[in-house]
Specification:
- It is a single chain.
- By secondary structure, the protein is mainly α.
- It contains 12 helices and 7 strands.
- It has helices spanning 17-28, 36-43, 86-96, 107-123, 125-140, 144-167, 170-175, 182-196, 201-217, 222-227, 310-313, 320-337; strands spanning 49-51, 63-65, 70-73, 75-76, 79-80, 287-289, 296-298.
- A 3-stranded mixed sheet has the order 1-3-2, covered by helices on one side.
- The longest helix is centred in the middle third of the chain and has 24 residues, at 144-167.
- It is globular, with a radius of gyration of 24 Å.
Length: 342
Amino acid sequence: MKSSTLKLPTIPNELRLGCIASLYFEEVRDVPMPKQIEVLDTFFKGFIVEEIPSDGQTKQNAVYDDIDGHIKAVRYQGSYHTGQSKRVTQIIGRLIGTAKKGIEKERKTASIIQERIAGELANDITRVNEVRLTVIALFESLSEPELERFYLTFANYINAVVARREAISERDKELELFPMNDEIFYDLMNCVIDEWNKDELEPKVNSVTWLLLGALLRNRISRLTYVYDSAFNLRRAQPAAIREDEDFEYYYEGDDLDKRFPGIEWYCDRCGEHLNEQEGFDDHHHIWKCTNCGYKNAIEIRNIYDPDDFEVNGGQPTVPDKFFKALKERTDELDEMNGDGS
């Protein structure tokens, strides 16, 4: 049994899900590290791994579903079974952060999963709370000695991650197997440290939740730091927020009025890719098939929100009449400037 005074010869100093899992299981709980697919299910239950109904005694290879973006696996004798699926193993290795340089595979698939999860969490605070509730359950399962080890271990880990980041060169950051933008890294770690330095249990839960999300989502975590403060309070209204005061108007200052929806940037609802930059994109198409993941996106007024100007419109879906009125006013303005007005 480990003593309550934790002495580690070395401590992980990289922000990877595998490092966090190793600390939690091996150092805090003093149990063997579970299989990687179980690690994903432990920290992100329901987000990545989906159970295939079975009798629990029959082995079946896990599969990745390209349509819904989940790994699907059976439970064999109580644990998820990956089997001989190299693709699933490679995807998990990328997400966990254990893939080896030079033979890393499925980068693109992992990126699609990260973007999907980031989108779900950014647009629905109840999904964030699902992750937080998982972390709370992990806290509550710890004994007093384990909890003491947890505080010491993770305090050391947070310090080690920041210290390493400050010590390595810009070149080394670029060459890392799992690189992370500096600005994004420090935005994340500010949330982690801000909550960790508070005395109550709930902020510690928030801190660990940020660590887990950052380790899984990498650069995609910026979508969450934009939406939530360190305590997971909304920095801005959600896209589906309801606004009672509708005394606001739209205006438009662009000149690309040959487009169906001028000034609108479109992103794939599955993988988050910027559709406007894809070859052949034209918003006169009512459906656009993403060239990155194949998802068919509806290019319609009902799918336009105004997330960057919440003080103006409260984050509601665009009001069609006001949207097109603004375009008409801009058209008239340009006609007048060009001498075409009456």
